[in-house]
Amino acid sequence: MAIIIIGEGDTKLDDSSLPFEGISIQELFVECVPCSLRFAVEKTLKVMADKSVPEFVFIELEGPAFPAQIKESLEYMPFEDLSFLLVYLLDAGTFSSEIAKLPNFIIKQIRESDIIGINKIDSTDMAKVSSIRYMLEAINPDVSIFEFSARDHDEGFGKFIETLVGN
User: Fold this and answer.
1) Predicted TM-score (pTM) of this structure
2) pLDDT per residue over 110-136, tens digit each?
3) CA separation (Å) from 107 to 19, 39, 47, 79?
4) Is the separation of the CB atoms in 107 and 64 below 8 Å?
5) How far is Cα 131 from Cα 138, in angstroms, rounded to an integer?
6) Is the Cβ–Cβ distance between 59 and 86 less than 8 Å?
7) 138 in helix, strand or coil?
8) Where are the alpha helices (DSSP H) in the chain?
């Protein structure tokens, strides 16, 4: 598995940060995501493939990116059997459960997602988590939603990871 994080360099993750073996983590700094993401990711995957070819690549994007557009551009990379899932992760404690309060780009990201992970449920009222889930299902009724605490590596987090790796 490979994890590519597109952001501003404040992630503080490396290959030893996760409790799983065989995960390669690489941070990318891309100023214009739509302009250069494909080429930056392609170059990074080629470097990672020199060590070992990942069976699964997780790309984390920050901000108002449009995942379906990015997925479309990445599908033309020269790697055999590369497929994509659009995964949206959110922080249950800070995420609004009111559609009217969400920016349009977030609603679009939710609509385009195949899987949504609601993280930090351990520090959030379960009524709020349920409200968030209900709102997400209203925006995208076909999405698979997982509720978990990544910090605690709970059962929901295990199912989330199994689903990602199984796809």
Assistant:
1) 0.74
2) 998 889 999 999 999 999 999 999 999
3) 32, 27, 34, 31
4) no
5) 11
6) no
7) helix
8) 33-51, 67-74, 104-112, 126-139, 155-166
